[in-house]
Amino acid sequence: MGASYAFFALVAAVCVIGIWRSIVDDEPGTVKYLVGVLVFVVATIGFSLSYRPRSNGRLEIEERNVRGETSPTIAYSTTPPILLCLIMGTLGLLLAVGAYELLPEPQTILPLPPESEHLLQEENSEGYGGTAFFGLLAVYFLSFPLGFLAGRLRVGYIAFTSEGIFQRGWAFESFLPWSDIAATPTGYGGHSATLVFGYSNAQWETKRTALVWKIDAPTPRPGIVIDYRKIRDDASLVHEYVTTQITERTGR
Residue ranges per domain, the chain? Predict the structure, then answer.
């Protein structure tokens, strides 16, 4: 992990030096690409640092309308999704700029000699092919932040309703009734997740909300996985709250 951080720090330093040299040498064409790479590197480092369980001594229970009732919820952290949007959006913009710059220049209004027309046609076809390729890649990566704007992807939360546990992940929804929880999770031991397993015949409901970016998913069997790398609050406090809710709601 340390080697990865050192590599990204080196790339960031090279980008900063390159931006400075491009400005001094009056070469604005390369600045936008260097700035894009710098933003990508910084966002990647930030995501790696933020995507881990927290021990901040914080536990904030919010009230939210879920499945037609007001229920206590534990929110996901907004930082990892924002940084992911920044990473994907930067890649998309870099590709979009590249696609635009590959567009063939407008043809001259002067008549060309017959022997030069086929060369111009070949150059234009190559330019349009590159534009189409990078343009499609740009649309693909830009669809990630657009997915959050459209609501297909969400920051997420865990809700404790009167009927069961409802989970809104980044790209899915899941619901497990209290009566179908098979066992209370054990004590928190520094793990990155709490697993709430249900019976094999549980009335478990799942739904994917994203068509393209399936960046997380429910468990393959009935249950709820509370991934503390995504949760905003202290992992041990959240685990304690979850186990208390299960014990009180199920009477175990």
Answer: 2-52+81-106+116-149, 62-77+155-250
